[in-house]
Amino acid sequence: GKALAPAENGAIWIGAWNGNVVGPHDGLWKFDKEARRIPVPGMTRVSAVDTDARGTLWIAGPEGVWRHEGQERFRKIAELPEGGRGSPVHALTVDSDGNPWVSVVRSKLFRLRNGQWERNGNLAALPDARPYVHARDAGGRLWFGYGDGRIAVVESDQVKILGPDQGLDLGTVFALYVGKHTVAAGENEVAVLVDG
Question: Would you state the torsion angle of the CA atoms of residues 80, 84, 88, 92, taken in this order, to the nearest 10 degrees?
């Protein structure tokens, strides 16, 4: 799998993970006219990347979650939650408070807050499933797209669920773009969401 995030001056961070056996292209790469591997001690496979509201890069994979400390140095923030260790991270989003949210393959959604992993961020209104995609909008709201076609929007620990009751027939949500126009792409349709 591959994951992309913007870097400074138009460059691109690339996380790469090509399966259960570590390969020569796994890890973190930076593309700025050419691709260059960026060594991250203790991390061999990068399956998810995100930049937080301040532009700091975060990376995650089977070995845990790391934050970019500048000058191509990274600091390990945490191991994955119990039961998810050694599994790829399907998606990573960092909330406005600097807390990483991860969707762990064959597991669930977790938020790391105050050094502790919280399943579903301790938000009972979130679906009890692993979202396929995450996004954070300019206002700091988190968006999660699920396999059953629902979208959850989290704002200040309040959850709003969008789905068939709002006229959506997305099927599995494969992509979310949150910006001037919020667009959700699923197996059945692409929807432009008005007023999220």
Answer: -50
Residues in a beta bridge with 43: 40
CA–CA separation, 118 and 97 (whole Å): 15
Q: What pTM value is reported for the model?
A: 0.92
The alpha carbon of residue 24 and the mean position of all alpha carbons in its chain are separated, in whole angstroms, by 24
Distance CA 58, CA 76 (A): 10
| Cβ proximity of 142 and 153 under 8 Å | yes
At residue 144, the 3 state secondary structure works out as strand
Asked if 76 contacts 59 with a C-beta cutoff of 8 angstroms, the reply is: no
Q: In DSSP terms, which residues pair with 78 in a beta bridge? A: 65
Concatenated DSSP letters of 5-68? EE-GGG-EEEEE--SSS--TT-EEEEESSSEEEE-BTTB----EEEE-TTS-EEEEETTEEEEE
CA dihedral 193, 52, 34, 90 (to 10 degrees): -70
What pLDDT digit, counting tens, does each position of 50-89 carry? 999 999 999 999 999 999 999 889 999 999 999 888 889 9
Q: Which two tokens stand for residue 58?
A: 């975060």
